[in-house]
Automatic annotation (TrEMBL):
Family matches, as InterPro entries: Acetyltransferase_Eis, Acyl_CoA_acyltransferase, GNAT_dom
Name of this chain's protein: GNAT family N-acetyltransferase
Domain of life according to the entry: Bacteria
N-acetyltransferase domain mapped to chain residues: 1-148
Entry-linked Pfam families: Acetyltransf_9 (PF13527)
Taxonomic source organism: Agathobaculum hominis
PANTHER family on file: N-ACETYLTRANSFERASE EIS (PTHR37817)
CDD domains, sorted: NAT_SF (cd04301)
Length: 266
């Protein structure tokens, strides 16, 4: 039986999550305390035993200025003792049917490993979302130190993000930006920004060794970020076209444009 989760399912869901996604840096506890919602959790049950599950998280894509509701598939997992029975495939197919009932335009996901791009291809997913990734090394020279950002800066963060993204990209509400800032403050090393007077000109959402999303960086700002974080090296990701990050399965008309998604619990 496939159904959405109820509150009574939480212990089994948490146990399966911990089994499939061993905790790193406190993320699992944070996810279930702050982000988990049972109505977005699709379960496959066999005789009251949870065998497999996935998250159907609602998001909005901007497609050349048109806003389209989509589902972000997250946390696909099957208990080790129930694998190789097609349960993940059953859950995905049910999620597609639910998407169509709700007139959602697409199902998207971010494969956790490179080989999973091929695993998801038979379901109709194709590489759609890209980014650039590079490594910074601290060097001598002038630097521009950043300031910590907070919810008060969300309008400027969003404006800079929207101006920097390709025509196909995930949109973020004020609530979503606030969730991201809170998570990076709690589990990472924070969110940093650079200003020209009162105007935000660059930002970086930082884990300890990665700026997961950085927009507007210059050489001086990169050196300033490394100094602020007391790091010699740092991996930086930003909107780009070099590295495939995510895939999409379009339910209505497909979109061939290369797009950008990030900061989606990936």
């Amino acid at each position: 039986m496939i159904r959405f989760a109820e509150q009574r399912d939480l212990p089994a869901i948490y146990s399966l999550w911990e089994t499939c996604f061993p905790d790193e840096g406190g993320f699992n506890g944070y996810f279930f305390s702050h982000l988990y919602e049972p109505q977005h959790t699709l379960l496959l049950m066999q005789e009251n035993t949870l065998c497999a599950m996935l998250q159907m998280l609602p998001y909005t894509l901007s497609v050349n200025g048109e806003l389209r509701e989509i589902t972000y598939i997250y946390g696909v997992c099957t208990h080790p003792s129930h694998r190789r029975r097609g349960y993940a495939a059953e859950l995905l197919e049910r999620s597609f049917a639910l998407d169509k009932e709700k007139n959602r335009a697409a199902s998207i996901l971010i494969p956790a490993e490179k080989w999973l791009f091929e695993f998801y291809r038979p379901f109709g997913y194709a590489e759609t979302f890209y980014l650039s990734r590079r490594s910074l090394t601290r060097t001598a020279g002038e630097f521009e130190l950043p300031r910590r950002l907070s919810d008060a800066h969300i309008p400027q963060i969003n404006a800079l993000y929207e101006a920097s993204c390709p025509p196909l990209h995930i949109t973020r509400s004020r609530e979503e930006w606030s969730r991201q800032i809170a998570m990076f403050d709690a589990l990472g090393v924070g969110v940093y920004g650079w200003f020209d007077g009162a105007a935000l000109t660059a930002y970086a959402f930082c884990w300890e060794d990665t700026a997961q999303e950085a927009i507007g960086l210059t050489a001086n700002r990169e050196r300033g970020l490394l100094n602020a974080l007391s790091r010699e090296t740092l991996t930086v990701t930003a909107p780009g076209s070099e590295t495939a990050l995510g895939v999409a399965k379009w339910h209505d008309r497909s979109c061939a444009d290369n797009g950008y998604i990030n900061l989606m619990l990936n």
